[in-house]
Design goal:
The chain is an alpha+beta fold and 397 residues long. Helix content is 25%, strand content 29%. It has nine helices and 17 strands.
Length: 397
């Protein structure tokens, strides 16, 4: 649902480009995220057609026996595996954050935007910046998306020849997805013109191996691509020792800005989101299975979800805190050497990205930097109290 499109209030303009730049940027990112989710949304739309269960589902559909399903009526399931709890109140003028109480139902869920691992049932209270959306993914879920460089908004009916697959593993050693597709235009699906593709992963903890299998696709329709490229994202995971595609080892390459920027089948690592990323540019026939195997035994001493809970979200907040402090140079007598630990913490994601083999050392350093960063900010005597409160509020999840 688009918040700017769900009211007739003339004061709420639907044209996101007329808002201030900071708001426009955040709304555009949210719109592109939703547009990238079309493969997930369309698969759930087919499920709604078959089973009569809508895309937006109240909590009591899934957990009718839990009293919280009825009292937490501002959160819902978006399809089968995404729990959304939109923030509908304004941010605090003091901290710049909005506080929200969220019910996590039975099971294990991963915060998409912060990487926090949560086990329910429990009620949590979290603070959110303007750019953060409370979205929680059921552990063991594979989310199909269009790759980040998809066309302009309005291209949803195009059948992608490239797919992005996000594996939200959590504590689930196995997970699967059934991707549904048809031509998106005609009624051919009624007469069987559609296709289903299975995707699965399996963790072998004893040998520190992750295997991912895509396809084969079953069924057909006129615009189904005969072959596809894939980008596999595994957030909150280790770097790889070795990655193979159909038994052939893939080279490591440095992280690029987008899928189109890669030039070969390869793997990389994003230290900002602790994501193993596997790029399969050579289009694979959809009629045959695709098998990818990654080993990661060298790094299992690090626990991605627990070494610093909320690390992924905290990196974004650190950048905001840095910007706030940087802006004080011509206002108060505050210099970068006064918050050196905060600067080091901010750079942790970049350091891991550039040198993922040192991830364990960088992760250990991050905790120390964060402790010292709080102390540094508290000790800034020349910083206005209002700015100090806002910066300190950003240094936790």
């Amino acid at each position: 649902m688009f918040r700017t499109h769900c009211t007739k209030n003339p004061l709420v303009d639907r044209r996101i480009w007329v808002y201030p730049p900071v708001n426009y940027k955040i709304m555009r990112q949210a719109m592109r995220l939703r547009a990238s989710l079309i493969p997930y949304i369309y698969s759930n739309a087919r499920y709604a057609y078959d089973e009569g269960l809508s895309l937006l589902r109240p909590m009591y559909y899934e957990f009718p026996e839990a009293p919280e399903s009825y009292t937490f009526d501002r959160q819902y399931f978006f399809g089968s595996d995404i729990l959304a709890a939109p923030v509908t109140q304004p941010v605090s003028e003091t901290t710049g954050l909005a506080t929200k109480e969220i019910w996590i139902p039975k099971g294990t869920y991963i915060s998409w935007f912060t990487g926090e691992l949560l086990t329910g049932p429990q009620t949590i209270t979290r603070n959110f910046t303007l750019s953060e959306i409370p979205v929680y993914i059921r552990a063991g879920t594979i989310i199909p998306l269009r790759t980040d460089d998809f066309g302009p908004l309005g291209s949803a009916q195009e059948i992608p020849s490239e797919l992005k697959l996000m594996l939200f593993i959590g504590n689930a050693e196995e997970g699967s997805l059934h991707l549904y597709e048809d031509d998106g235009v005609t009624n051919g699906y009624i007469s069987g013109e559609f296709a289903n593709t299975s995707v699965s992963y399996k963790i072998d903890s004893s040998s520190s191996m992750l295997s991912v299998t895509v396809g084969p696709t079953k069924g057909n329709f006129s615009s189904l691509p005969s072959a596809r490229a894939y980008q596999i994202h595994v957030p909150n995971f280790w770097p790889a020792d070795k990655v193979t595609l159909a038994g052939k080892e893939l080279p490591y390459v440095a992280l690029r800005d987008s899928f189109d920027d890669y030039s070969m089948d390869s793997w990389t690592y994003d230290g900002r989101t602790l994501s193993l990323i596997i790029n399969i540019l050579t289009k694979q026939p959809v009629s045959s299975p695709v098998l990818v195997v990654a080993s990661y035994g060298s790094y299992t001493a690090l626990k991605p979800y627990t070494f610093y809970p909320g690390y992924v979200g905290l990196l974004g907040r650190l950048q905001q805190a840095k910007q706030l402090l940087d802006m004080q140079w011509n206002v108060d007598i505050v210099y970068q050497e006064d918050y050196f630990a905060l600067l080091n913490a901010t750079e942790t994601g970049r350091r891991i990205t550039y040198n993922p083999t040192n991830i364990i050392t960088y992760a250990e350093d991050f905790g120390e930097y964060m402790k010292n960063a709080v102390q540094e900010v508290e000790a800034l005597k020349n910083l206005k109290d209002s700015v100090k409160v806002e910066v300190l509020s950003l240094l936790s999840i």
